[in-house]
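Posting this for the archive.
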Amino acid sequence: MELVVHSYCLKGARQEPLLPPVTLTPTSSTLTVAELIRLTVAEQIAALSVQHWLEQASMREVLDRQYLSERDIRRQASEGAIVMPQASESPRLDVDVEIEQALKGFENRAFRVLHNGVMLQSLNDPIDLSPPSTLAFIRLMPLIGG
């Protein structure tokens, strides 16, 4: 069974996407909130890493093409091929560290997890994933002045 987890940020009356939705394929029909957070954070990091790598690679390609001089093109052509410089690899995130931060964030009420519209209270709360299941991570932002 596949589940989609949405992450939102509530700013006053507005609801804005915080992170892209991720699709999970849990091996069990019941998870705890902690297990859901672990799976979701790992998938979010994987999705963000790919997205940002593609964006960086695309920008690098455009910039490299923009600034490749005629002299560089002639020199490389004489060597047999014109190649663009390779972008350096982005720093990798430590998934375990990010998961621990997310678990602490849940415990500190920095964000809430809703299952079928019901707010879950504890990392040990069980979640029955039988269809239809809707899951959302909600980041609460305090209003200005209080």
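The mean pLDDT is 81. Helices lie at 33-67, 70-78, 95-107.
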